[in-house]
Design a protein that fits this description.
By secondary structure, this protein is of the alpha+beta class. α43 (1184-1194) links the parallel β15 and β16.
């Protein structure tokens, strides 16, 4: 409309269809003509909202002139006035940003007249021209149409801001033009953003609110692109910026710009591993990348950081935003060095003092400011605490924190730990605080105990809406793991008088805890009251004082923190609902008990009882229950403390586990629960086998045997259950809870053929209730697993109870099996038998058995019987007594006994303590049959005389004895038996007459049966046949379960292979010493630094040193050719070798046992390639995680290492504290290994007891690290699907041997 009117006056040619195009550059005769035209255009930016169409065309004209040089007026280009030309455009563009409202219309006037005056006359006109225009009156403005007009105005403003941005990006602006552009944009921003934020009561959009994001984005981009260092300009910006800080978007923009400059600054300061390569401003989805010079980045970063005032002076919402912005900047500094590059020195992040110099004033002011009701303010204050905790939790590499900062931080913590809003943030950011070398940090333990008591064991309601409940409780548990061992190191430190302020409010009130929790609390108080009874503070308290008088003394003693820590751990175990947190708690309880048991022996029994009760509730998830069993099994090593103060703990636990396993077996739902049954068996047997307590406890023995028998006969019970489809509920209940007699173990039906589940138990993974083609029942894998575990535990119970470790043997616990080399004797026997020249030498080494036979018993045990009757000393008596050596090979190992048949000395009956058994266990390293027999021989008869027995035999008569048939009556109708009856009657009569004659002459003399010749039947009866007959193996019911084995060379070879199979889990673990995470491969293996004495002590606390030249147990992959001494550990269940590169040496010259592998790095690589766990003692935690990657690479492509346990000795006020870090990098040589590492990392709590971030004491370090390494090794094999229990391997091997070597002869013919 406006341009059309100008064209009608012949002031300017106007092509209506192309009205938005700029005029042709050649029509302007001079710069003055251009300025006249620009004044006309500039008036368009002042038009009302209704004429914004004209304004839009003006914007387009100027945009063309700015960005298309060939469209600019020729006069401007010819005179070189581009910069002035740009400045005029920028100034006139600013007129658009004046807020305006639609013109009101009354509706009575039909027309409206206004006058427009031209600024420059057209060609041929000498005077100014004033032309009235009459236009029709527009329709009335409604609310909707006004909002539309305003929104259109805002869109045009955004369009101009885009033009400003493009001008800064594309035009070559002079310094003066840049100044004009910045001032224009700054003025626009200040005029619009200084207004208050709309409260929603005004109609339509508000320009300041709508343009805030765009204005700030354009302003900061242009400001940084200009690279201005004009101090006056920056000061103006700061003064203006303060007027905008009431807007949240302003704080957000500042935070983003400051963070982007921080990242770029970090790249300049710390190299390519830190920061970013450009300044990348990202706000609300818009990304602006600026490539700025280094010196200007430093300058701009400093000026931008301090644009805002102290955040505490801002409104609550903006205060929180500003503090969070500071937090992101601090995190950027802390990220330095987290992702190191290979073969490059990792930079050290900024010191905490540096960060506190920059932000300390703001953060401390936020922490100490008076609390306000506003939720936003509380959020900002809590965030300030979190930032400070993160700063002080980082180790100082150069200089320690200033004392001023430390004191202010501790004072702030004392306040924040008692604040409902700040406590969660403090706990979630303090998990590493106590692992630092911060001076005096351990004095804050009481304050943290007060804070944690508000979260554990039961969280107060006010914390539930702050963060996730499980995450907050986990943070409290993690902090507890770093402080629970500290009271033992600071018992004499005096606590400030008001340290327990708020403690009673936290969680001790009755409304917050239940009755059971109160009982636990009282139990802990009594426990530590007993521990503290010798303390000087208690000497004045008499034994009859009441508990309420003792407890206050405890709470004022050095043991008070220990009591509170133990209480919150145990009570949290009862109240925790998160599976992850409960597993974490169980690991912590395990470590705490090991830490404190030397000072409080009764602690073990108490904790065992609580865990036992928790398991018996049957309400725990399977993963939690498995960890609980692991904890109970770890406590077996503390039995010496248990039996001292809690003698019945082991018995009650074993009986409870029996009930637990029986319950799971009887429910029939083993598909998901069978790992719990197997673990319960394992835990039960470990407590059964520790010590000798169960030897005198017949009731407990019967319960264990009954429970294991129930597992062994699980197949038969299933068949019985399926066959009895009818019956009352009570009968079913009795059947499920009853146990078959033990003798039924030898009366089981025949197993399935080798193609069935009998041999492929691990592969029987499908539930089958049908039968296979041979008619044999197929069993589910869970039933097979339970049966195998029960059989293994029964074998342990029979073979190892009281026999392991054989401390009288020089070998000790390195071997569970006998050292009797029966295979050498078998070879010698076969050789002598084939040559018909059995050796009769009298020396021990040359003794050869008279007869050797092998049997398979019940498909599970290979029994060897060696007749050693000729080697038994009889003191001149004739004939020689039958004697055998029994060697049993089963899933648990190889064991030997000697048995000698002798007449019983009846004179010994006067002494009831005289044993009748003649068997003994052989553990001598050198086989000597004579010694074996001597060791087990009974007292011999002296001259055939004895004292008449005084033992009375009770006699009873049956009620119906008259109805019993006589022997003659039984043989009626059986004439073929008549002769046998007559012969037996004659022999009986002769025996009776002989006894009467002897009694008449000498009643105290025992007659001796003298055979008529040396070839009598009694002399020809094999000793092994007598032995088997006496044990019941030759009974008709059991003969099917005794299978003879043919003794062949292949059988002997396979027996040798069986003896080589592991009887226990055999594990090898790598150990290293490193100064820091930057230690090179050469320093790790070839040229280590001087090993610290503490490291050597730790190494030998993992296991005792053994000489490989004399060692009889597991050796890992080393031998005496490359290693002389190695740390070794063994118990009933496991053997562990700790590979250490510092004990290796190159083979001697000429020794080809290791082939071409002679250099130390290659030797070490080959030795450790199967080690799943690495233990690294690291003096400095700098870049510690990268060391795990370096070790993985160093050990070669075949390395199986997955878990890396770091031990860092803490320095400070006390010695003997160690920080544990556990790394599971998601790396591998194959996709499957990477997946396995990720699985293990996601489920790291399946092994323990140590967890990442824990702090432990020196006296518990060795045992805890060893147990964790063993558990981690097993977990690695589980996630890689390579874990099979040793007894399963041995069982399958035995079954395959029996299948190949079974004799076709009947048992009667064989023996």
């Amino acid at each position: 409309m406006f341009l059309d009117w100008i064209a009608q006056l012949h002031l300017l040619q106007h092509d209506a269809p192309a009205g938005k195009a700029a005029p042709h550059p050649s029509i302007f005769a001079s710069p003055a003509h251009v300025k006249w035209f620009m004044e006309v255009i500039g008036q368009g930016f002042n038009l009302p909202l209704e004429d914004m169409t004209i304004t839009s065309e003006d914007i387009n004209i100027y945009a063309q002139w700015l960005f298309e040089a060939n469209q600019r007026p020729a006069a401007v280009s010819r005179e070189g006035l581009e910069q002035e030309f740009f400045q005029i455009i920028f100034h006139q563009y600013s007129l658009l940003f004046r807020p305006r409202v639609p013109r009101p219309h009354s509706g009575a006037s039909k027309t409206a007249t206004y006058t427009t005056t031209t600024v420059v006359p057209a060609p041929g006109a000498a005077n100014l021209i004033t032309i009235p225009m009459v236009a029709p009156s527009p329709p009335p403005i409604t609310r909707e149409s006004a909002a539309q007009l305003t929104q259109r105005h805002i869109e045009l403003c955004k369009k101009v801001l885009t033009v400003f941005t493009m001008a800064g990006r594309t035009l070559d602006l002079s310094e003066e033009t840049w100044s004009v552009l910045l001032k224009v944009v700054l003025g626009i921003t200040d005029s619009l953003l200084s207004e208050r934020v709309s409260d929603g009561t005004r109609n339509g959009p508000i320009m300041g609110d709508e343009l805030c994001d765009h204005l700030l984005r354009v302003l900061f981009e242009l400001w940084l692109r200009s690279k201005t260092r004009d101090v006056e300009m920056w000061d103006i910006l700061k003064r203006c910026f303060v007027r905008w800080t009431h807007r949240p978007k302003v704080i957000q923009q500042w935070s983003s710009v400051a963070l982007s400059l921080t990242h770029r600054t970090l790249r300049f300061l710390y190299g390519p591993t830190a920061g970013t390569s450009v300044v990348n401003i990202a706000v609300n989805g818009f990304n602006v990348k600026l490539d700025l010079p280094q010196d200007f980045v430093y300058y701009a970063w400093h000026r931008i950081l301090f644009l805002i005032p102290n955040p505490w002076q801002l409104s609550p919402g903006n205060f929180a935003l500003a503090v969070m912005g500071v937090g992101r900047i601090v995190e950027a500094f802390h990220s330095v060095g987290q992702v190191p590059l290979p073969d490059s020195e990792t930079p050290s992040p900024a010191d905490g003092n540096t960060l506190l110099h920059i932000f300390g004033g703001w953060l401390f002011d936020a922490c100490f400011s008076a609390p306000q009701v506003s939720a936003e303010y509380q959020q900002g204050r809590a965030e300030a605490y979190g930032i400070l905790c993160r700063i002080f939790s980082k180790p100082q590499r150069r200089v320690p924190f200033l004392r001023l900062y430390i004191e202010r931080f501790y004072a702030a913590l004392a306040i924040g730990l008692r604040s409902d809003t700040c406590l969660p943030t403090i706990l979630m950011n303090s998990t590493e605080l106590f692992a630092t070398d911060l001076e005096g940090v351990r004095l804050m333990v009481p304050d943290f105990v007060v804070g944690i008591k508000s979260i554990l064991p039961k969280m107060q309601p006010e914390y539930r809406n702050v963060v996730s409940v499980d995450e907050l409780r986990l943070a409290a548990i993690k902090v507890t793991s770093t402080i629970m061992c500290l009271p033992n190191h600071f018992e004499n430190v005096s606590l400030k008088p008001d340290w327990d302020r708020g403690l009673n409010v936290a969680s001790d009130n009755v409304s917050m805890i239940g009755e059971q929790e109160q009982l636990v609390s009282q139990l802990m108080k009594v426990l530590y009251a007993q521990q503290s009874s010798q303390h000087p503070a208690f000497t004045s308290v008499s034994s009859h004082d009441c508990l309420h008088r003792i407890v206050p003394l405890i709470l004022q003693s050095a043991f008070q923190l220990k009591y509170y820590i133990l209480e919150l751990l145990l009570m949290s175990l009862r109240t925790e609902t998160s599976s992850y947190n409960m597993r974490y708690l169980l690991h912590l309880i395990n470590v705490y008990v090991v830490e404190d048991v030397p000072f409080c022996p009764g602690l073990v029994g108490t904790v065992v009882k609580l865990i036992q009760d928790k398991i018996l509730t049957m309400q725990l998830s399977s993963d939690v229950t498995l960890v609980a069993f692991d904890v109970l099994m770890d406590f077996v090593g503390l039995y010496e403390y248990v039996k001292r103060d809690s003698k019945n703990v082991a018995r009650e636990l074993v009986l409870a586990l029996c009930r637990y396993a029986d319950t799971l077996n009887s429910t029939g739902n083993l598909a998901q629960k069978y790992p719990l049954v197997v673990q319960a068996y394992d835990c039960m047997m470990r407590w059964v086998m520790v010590g000798q307590w169960i030897v005198d406890d017949r009731d407990c023995q019967h319960a264990v045997i009954a429970t294991l028998s129930r597992g062994i006969t699980i197949f038969e019970r299933e068949i019985e259950t399926n066959s009895q489809s009818e019956g009352s509920h009570e009968k079913k209940k009795r059947r499920d809870t009853g146990f078959p007699p033990t003798k039924q173990l030898f009366q089981l039906p025949n197993r399935a053929s080798k193609g069935g589940s009998g041999n492929q138990s691990n592969d029987a993974d499908k539930a089958t209730s049908a039968t296979n083609k041979n008619g044999m029942a197929m069993h589910r894998k869970e039933e097979i697993a339970v049966k195998m575990a029960a059989e293994y535990c029964m074998s342990q119970f029979v073979n190892q109870l009281g026999n392991f470790p054989p401390w009288k043997d020089q070998v000790g616990p390195t071997r569970t099996s006998t050292l009797l080399d029966d295979l050498s004797l078998i070879k010698a026997w076969k050789k002598s038998k084939s040559s018909n020249a059995i050796s009769q030498q009298n020396n021990d080494d040359g003794a050869v058995a008279k007869r050797i036979q092998l049997f398979l018993l019940d498909g599970r045990v290979i029994a060897g019987l060696m007749d050693i009757s000729d080697l038994v000393e009889t003191n001149g008596e004739s004939p020689k007594s039958p004697a055998v050596v029994l060697i049993c090979r089963d899933t648990t190992g190889r064991y030997s006994w000697t048995s000698c048949l002798r007449y019983e000395d009846l004179t010994s009956k006067a002494s009831p303590a005289t044993p009748r058994s003649t068997s003994s266990t052989s553990s001598s390293p050198k086989y000597n049959p004579t010694l074996l027999v001597r060791a087990g021989s009974s007292p011999t008869l002296h001259n055939g005389h004895l004292v008449k027995s005084t033992a009375s035999i009770p006699v009873a008569e049956a009620v119906n004895w008259m109805a019993l048939p006589s022997l003659e009556q039984l043989l009626i109708g059986k004439p073929e038996k008549k002769s046998d009856l007559e012969r037996m009657t004659e022999i009986t009569s002769l025996q009776q007459h002989a006894e009467q004659d002897i009694d008449q002459h000498d009643p105290l003399q025992i007659p001796k049966a003298a055979p008529e010749s040396s070839h009598s039947p009694i002399d020809q009866t094999p000793s092994e046949r007598l032995f088997m007959s006496q044990l019941g193996f030759l009974h008709t019911k059991n003969r099917n379960n005794v299978i003879p084995l043919r003794i062949t060379d292949s059988l002997i070879s396979e027996l040798e292979m069986l003896d080589m199979l592991n009887e226990r889990d055999c594990i090898s673990i790598s150990t290293y010493f490193a100064q820091s995470g930057n230690t090179t491969e050469k320093e790790l293996v070839e040229q280590p630094p001087e090993l610290s004495q503490s490291y050597l002590q730790f190494l030998y606390s993992l296991g005792w040193p053994v000489k490989l030249s004399e060692h009889r147990g597991y050796r890992g992959k080393v031998d005496s050719a490359i290693c002389d001494v190695i740390p070794y550990y063994a118990d009933r269940m496991v053997e562990v070798v700790f590979h250490n590169p510092y004990f290796l040496h190159e083979p001697k010259e000429g020794d080809l046992s290791w082939g071409a592998v002679s250099r130390l790095p290659k030797l070490h690589q080959q030795v450790t390639q199967d080690d799943h766990v690495c233990i690294i003692w690291i003096e400095d935690m700098t870049n510690w995680e990268s060391l795990a990657h370096r070790i993985k690479t160093m050990n070669g492509v075949n390395s199986k290492s997955m878990v890396y346990i770091f031990i860092n000795p803490l320095v400070g006020a006390v010695d003997g504290l160690y920080w544990i870090r556990i790394s599971i990098p998601s790396v591998g040589n194959t996709p499957s290994s990477i997946v396995a590492s990720q699985r293990l990392k996601e489920n790291a709590l399946i092994f323990g007891p140590l967890v990442d971030g824990m702090i432990v004491s020196r006296h518990a370090l060795g045992a805890m690290v060893r147990n964790t390494a063993i558990s981690a090794h097993q977990a690695c094999r589980v996630v890689t699907d390579s874990f099979t229990r040793p007894y399963v391997i041995r069982k399958h091997f035995i079954e395959e041997m029996a299948h190949r070597h079974s004799s076709k002869l009947s048992l009667s013919e064989y023996v």
